[in-house]
Amino acid sequence: FCHTGERSCFSGDAGWGALFRRLSERIERAPEGSYTRELAASPRLLRGKLLEEAGELADAATPAEVTHEAADLLYFATVAMARAGVDPAKVLDLLDHRALIVSRRGASLPDQVR
């Protein structure tokens, strides 16, 4: 963290927050036919892309594949967040909070994996 309270002392419009701001702007101002705007306008399309990319990330075998698929999934997740007005800082704060909670889940698996 930076002395200013920001996550980094290095300025510049980069990272997840910058992606969020760009996507939020595109959802509001992009011309008809914009893919980001189309995703935000169609919950069904966005859901399909999120499921597709999550599956591809789960199946990724190499570091390069994981990097590529994680980036794709984060893009679509960030579109969903921008559509709902949820800033990445809120997600990161929740993850930080969860890291402080001790839980024991054992070998539980989601029903769809069993």
Describe this structure in words.
By secondary structure, the protein is mainly α. The protein has a single domain (15-101), classed as MazG-like (Helix Hairpins), CATH 1.10.287. The protein has helices at 15-29, 35-41, 43-59, 63-84, 88-99. Helix 3 packs antiparallel against helix 4. The longest helix is centred in the middle third of the chain and has 22 residues, at 63-84.
> Mean of residue pLDDT?
88
Low-confidence parts: none
Radius of gyration: 17 Å
Distance between the termini: 41 Å
Total helices: the number is 5
The biggest sheet amounts to: none
Q: CATH superfamily, please?
A: MazG-like
Strand portion: under 5%
CATH architecture: Orthogonal Bundle
Tertiary shape: globular
Elements, N to C (H/E): HHHHH
Report the top-level CATH class: Mainly Alpha
Our count of domains comes out at 1
Keywords:
single chain; 114 residues; mainly alpha; Helix Hairpins; 5 helices; 64% helix; globular
Topology summary:
Layout: H1 15-29, H2 35-41, H3 43-59, H4 63-84, H5 88-99
Helix pairs in contact: 1-2, 1-4, 2-3, 2-4, 3-4
Short structural description:
The protein is mostly helical and 114 residues long.
